[in-house]
Amino acid sequence: LWPWLLASSGLSALVQLVTLPLFPDSPSYLLIQKGNEEACRKAIRKLWGEGDHQAEIDDIMKEKGATASTKTLRVLEVIKERSLRWQLYILVIVMTTLQLCGINAIYFYSFEVFHTAKFEEYLIPYVSLGVGLCECLSSILCSTLIDRFGRKVLLWGGYLLMCSVLALLTMTLSLQHRFFWMHYFSVILIFLFVVCFGIGP
Fold it and tell me: What is the pLDDT of residues 190-201, one digit of tens each?
């Protein structure tokens, strides 16, 4: 039934495809991008019910005024703009470290680690599914923690913990032939690494 399980992810896309036409466009999009105040008022009434929503419309108008004075830059203009240099550096560093943090290697080699941990062959796909579920749950947890601690703390902490876990994982994989319990410790570290990735980066 694994093909059905993989295909089930398309169910949420199908639900979105069917239900999205029933929802109104964003009021700020209708007013700022389209310049249609009446459609904006209709969308606000549909989202928030009847009532006086002039304060919200005024806020959107202020946002429109603020965006009107800013110029939309092309990609090359963003790269050349000196005032955006540091933001660009930070963005490139975050995206690069996200790709090179080791999560893909963990997913790729986790099957081998589970196999050497003497898990039954039929159990390994379920343990792998548990790793994915672990990432999903930790990402949900991250959305609650980010308001409390901020992005910077979660990024620094996540990468620091991931480095520590990878160092321990390297050690346990090296010593797995000497101690029988190292296999299980490696499995725990894989789950811990995925939790650190989900909460941090």
Answer: 999 999 998 888
